[in-house]
Design brief:
The protein has 170 residues and is mainly β. It is built from no helices and 15 strands. It has strands at 2-5, 13-16, 27-36, 42-51, 59-65, 68-70, 81-87, 91-104, 107-113, 118-122, 125-131, 134-135, 138-139, 143-152, 162-169.
Length: 170
């Protein structure tokens, strides 16, 4: 809804609904409102309309390569995996690690998030992050894990989390 004072010097305010196209990005826009009085005269007013960013960022094409790797050490810091993904808009990406907490018939049925994580900036389009297999300064133990990436844009809109499985070797 936008409201504007009439241009005839009157302090009467008029409130009108304004349809905002989905293609309109966030920002402040001038909206011109023209009204016709009963005596045939017209009045025009201008209002400022603020459109907020409510679009959640979308993270897609998530891959970890290689899927099996050794965690980095002080002597061998280049170990780890390359995580690649695409973002629909610029956003920071929170990386958390989950480990299987319960297995049933050889398959994980419950995952538990480990303490710690990383937050990295991301740009619209293709992104790459190096994950060295360490969390809170310690190497992950050998076993199966999931990397969870959650995007959050500058307007604090949080996108849907994406997950990719990986394994740490001895």
């Amino acid at each position: 809804m936008a409201s504007a004072a009439l241009s005839n010097g009157s302090d009467t305010r008029v409130t009108v609904p304004v349809a905002i196209p989905k293609s309109a990005g966030p920002g402040v826009f001038d909206v011109t409102v023209t009204g016709r009085l009963e005596n045939g005269q017209t009045r025009t007013g201008v209002a400022k309309l603020t459109v907020r960013d409510r679009q959640k960022p979308v993270l897609s094409k998530l891959k970890a390569k290689p899927k099996r790797f050794k965690a980095a050490t002080k002597k061998k810091p280049k170990r780890g995996t390359n995580v690649s993904f695409t973002l629909s808009e610029a956003a920071s990406v929170r990386l958390t690690v989950e480990r299987c907490a319960k297995r049933k018939r050889g398959r994980c049925v419950r995952w538990k998030a480990l303490k710690g994580g990383l937050t990295k900036p991301g740009v619209a389009g293709a992104n790459k992050i190096r994950f060295n297999g360490r969390l809170r300064g310690k190497a992950l133990k050998a076993g199966g894990y999931r990397l969870v990436l959650t995007p959050k844009d500058g307007a604090a809109n949080v996108g849907k989390a994406a997950r990719v499985a990986f394994a740490v070797r001895r």
